[in-house]
Amino acid sequence: MFSIFWTLKDWFRPSIEALFARHIDFDKRWRMFFILQPVVFITNSIATIPWLFSRSFNVEHITVDTGTRVRILVCKHGITPGDGMLRPLHLDLHGGGFIGGPPEADAEFCDMLARRTGAIVISATYRYAPLHTFPAAIDDMDAIVRYLLDHARQRWNADPELMSVSGFSAGGNLAMASTQQPVCQLPSLFTYKAVVIYFGVMDLRVKPEDKPRPRNSDGKDRMPRFDPVVSLFPLFDAYATRALQDHIEDPRLSPMLARVETLPKDILFIVPAIDVLAAEQLIFASRVTEEINADLYGKGRDRRIETVIYDEGFHGWTGFLLLDSPFFQVLH
Predict the structure, then answer these.
(1) Strand, helix or coil at 104?
(2) What total of structural domains would you count in the chain?
(3) What confidence tier does 284 reach under pLDDT thresholds 50, 70, 90?
(4) Residue 6, domain member (yes or no)
(5) Contact at 8 Å (CB) between 189 and 116?
(6) What phi and psi values does residue 66 have, to the nearest 5 degrees?
(7) Which residues constitute the domain of residue 185?
(8) Among the ranges given (46-50, 140-144, 305-309, 317-321), the one the predictor scored with the smallest mean pLDDT
(9) pLDDT greater than 90 at residue 49
(10) What is the DSSP letter of 12?
(11) What is the CATH number of the domain that holds 233?
(12) Rg (CA), the chain
């Protein structure tokens, strides 16, 4: 019963907050009620309905040290009772523009990762804007990481000293920003072993509508002429707007400002070329690469950053690659 209540509350969250939450201006309220609510209902349906009766993950709730109760998915395969071997630990953070998205959106990816690597893979959620602005989401992520470091061994038989992290879109921002927590940095034993970013938001100092649009060699705009997501831009921007004045140089808000020595040794960017976020990811990767190369005989010699660019890829396109996912099986 609690699980059903949690699900329904999340599905209708935009309407509930638009009608009853305080400190949200009218421009955002009507967008939440008339635009975001249908989007959340559809995306949550696509992400969760196929898993209602058969799923390859466990749904759990944890209470982190901030007092926040967090819903997570736990994927684990090939584990037998009495197996004392600690498994690698991976944390995945879903996208959604900081305004929505369930962890089930990445369930197929997490399940695949757990099957192929034998790792314990956890997909976590966080508080959403515009009700919860910066630093709410990254505070949640930092608290989740601390919980995993403290409890992963006894709860899931996972090794917090072999922890990696990934994130999609807004989740990519949070994944990279979470590296700024001192416990995740060298010389700590719990430093992330790697971070993988899929079309992540690296610079929140720039509004969505002001980000550079990708162009062909002849200068032609590669983005579609009509982009319905534009109507959600004021909501996407809500997470960062109030915080910019005091946090304009804060890497927890804009991870591309992070110093090299605070980052994991291994970083991989998956960048679709048809995406307004492509430029900031490439700029960040280029800057870090230059600093690593300039320090080959110092701390940079054992660091690695790689960028894989998909020329025909667009924002969120990886979700369409999983044609054998439960959602597409239901359609057929």
Answers:
(1) helix
(2) 1
(3) very high
(4) no
(5) no
(6) -90, -5
(7) 60-331
(8) 317-321
(9) no
(10) T
(11) 3.40.50.1820
(12) 20
